[in-house]
Amino acid sequence: MSALLAATGLTHAYRQARVLSDVSLSVNAGEFVAIIGANGSGKSTLLRILGRLLRPNAGSVLIDGVPLATIAPRAFARRVAFVPQGPVAPGDVVVRELVRRGRYPHRSRFGGSTEHDRAAIETAIARVGLADLADRPMGMLSGGERQRAWIALALAQEPALVLLDEPTTFLDIAHQLELLTLLTRLNREEGLTVVTVLHDIAQAAQHAGRIIGLRDGRVVADGPPQVVVTVDGLRALFGVSLRVMPDPDTGLPLVLPHAG
Amino acid sequence: MASIDPAAPSRRRGKSFLGLGVAAVLLLVAMVFAIRYGAASLKLSEVFDGLFNLGNVFARQVVWDIRFPRVVVAALCGAGLAIAGSILQAVTRNPLGDPHIFGFSSGAGVAAIALLLLAPGYPTGLLPVASFLGALLAAAIVFALAWRGGISPIRFALAGVAVAALFTAISTTLIATSDLFTQAVLSFLAGGLYQVGWTGLWTILPYTVVAGLVAIVIADRLNILALGDDIAASVGLRVERTRLLLVALAAILTAAAVSVAGLIGFVGLVAPHVARLILGSDERVALPMAALLGALLLVVADTIARVVIAPSEIPVGIFTAIVGAPTLLILVRTRT
């Protein structure tokens, strides 16, 4: 069986500065992958290339075994959704209307919305737990609710894979946890494949089944949290020594932000 | 927690239809009054007599030969400029987006003045053609300057403002260094529908109607662009191609309007904002609403321009500002 997503030899530079060097990775359906790395390590660039928002200087990406460049944009959008960092909507747009716009790749060019469109919108809103707020304007939502609305827009595309760029960045700790729990649930219970850039290694270790570590545009670690998130592994990624110990309940690595 | 309100979406839709209906009725009423008043004022019965050719020869002449085409042209220009403004505001994600501010009209101005100065004996039909081409050229220049592997909204806005300044400077230089200065130049620069009749109407009708309808049909793409380029691309919108199509539509609508009406400012800026303040940012209703309000604004302004010191006329741009500015300010202060 071929991988859902397979990237080979991705290399990219902005002007002269090389940000990705020969990155290869593949993601199977049903995985929850976190991409971690220091600032400027190339993680956002990698995610944008996988999401077709950026064309790499070299290398190729296959979706379902088909080269990304040969897939029509709307067909791609029905397989892969991308949630950028800190998106902004006009404040008067209500949740249901925002999510409706995620149906664009499914609509016939000039056709109206179908029964299935309407059902997909309501389902997406319910899956992120915003059913009670579907008619509330985006401007009146909390940061956490707003982020869930953007995820509902992505879900309305009915994708197999969702890419997220630091989805917890502007949230407080409670809403960060809520969001990662939501993604974990969508992954485990509904089979959604998730690839997310995460800033917080501890969160990545607790929620992702697999962690990819980038340093200076290269993949230097790739494996389950217990393998990647170690004192040596984090020193290789971030250049500092951190204290790591197993969670007494789950055995997953805990990271403490001070030298061990 | 807000309670579930199943009626909310249909209520919003009802409000949109009501708003569009009221604006359409207001526009029709304004057009009837615009036909009624002028150098010679008519009775309402004479307006309908003239419109439907019921036997009154004088009414027929005033209404059908002179005022009706002029009023329809005012409505078409107003609607076209408003749609162009809506598009440019969406494409640049900038509230100051406007065909006038982004230099499209200035291109028409340079072309018209150059024609008047270089070929003083030009055939009368040439001025609309020159200004039409000038506006398209200016739009193409703005687009080309903003392009670098893609259009960034901020680059487009800045390129537009720069082109506007440059073309206005060229126009001013041409005028200042020439002793040939005609009434035609002045009225073109001030903007107005003086002596616009059936020829003008047939000239712009196809451009304005086709480009305007295409814009309204694809208005939902403006909604998607409003969420930012990343979201737009990730739901499968071809962002650059869509922006090119939209800017081309805005350029055609502006070119058609300036070719018969000269440089009328403010309609393209104010009508989209008023529409969004009344009906919200969903362009599927805000765009047609802006078109109706732009038409209404220009019909009203043109009527005032004709009536105030009849039989002379005042440049219509003065009244689009006098009527439009307070409306916008009142809405901004009460509804935001």
Secondary structure blueprint with pairings:
The complex is a heterodimer of chains A (260) and B (336).
Chain A: E1 5-14, E2 17-27, E3 32-37, H1 43-50, E4 58-63, E5 66-67, H2 73-77, E6 80-83, H3 95-100, H4 115-127, H5 143-156, E7 161-165, H6 173-190, E8 193-197, H7 201-207, E9 210-215, E10 218-223, H8 225-228, H9 231-238, E11 243-246, E12 253-256
Parallel strand pairs in A: 3-8, 3-9, 6-7, 7-8
Antiparallel strand pairs in A: 1-2, 1-4, 4-5, 9-10, 11-12
Chain B: H1 8-36, H2 44-52, H3 57-92, H4 104-118, H5 126-146, H6 153-176, H7 183-190, H8 198-217, H9 219-225, H10 229-234, H11 239-261, H12 267-279, H13 283-307, H14 316-335
Helix pairs in contact in B: 1-3, 1-13, 2-3, 3-8, 3-11, 3-12, 3-13, 4-5, 4-6, 4-7, 5-6, 5-11, 8-11, 8-13, 9-13, 12-13, 12-14, 13-14
Report what the structure shows.
The complex is a heterodimer of chains A (260) and B (336). With 260 residues, chain A is an alpha/beta fold. In chain A, the strands form three sheets. A six-stranded mixed β-sheet of chain A has the order 6-7-8-3-9-10, with helices on both faces. The mean pLDDT of chain A is 92. Chain A has nine helices and twelve strands. In chain A, β1 and β2 form a beta hairpin. Chain B has one domain: Orthogonal Bundle (ABC transporter involved in vitamin B12 uptake, BtuC). Chain B contains 14 helices and no strands. Chain B starts with 7 loop residues before the first helix and ends with a helix. The radius of gyration of chain B is 20 Å and the shape is globular. Chains A and B meet through α2, β6, α3 and α5 of A and α1, α9 and α10 of B.
Key terms for this structure?
heterodimer, A: 260 residues, alpha/beta, 6-stranded mixed sheet, 4-stranded antiparallel sheet, 9 helices, 32% helix, B: 336 residues, mainly alpha, ABC transporter involved in vitamin B12 uptake, BtuC, 14 helices, globular
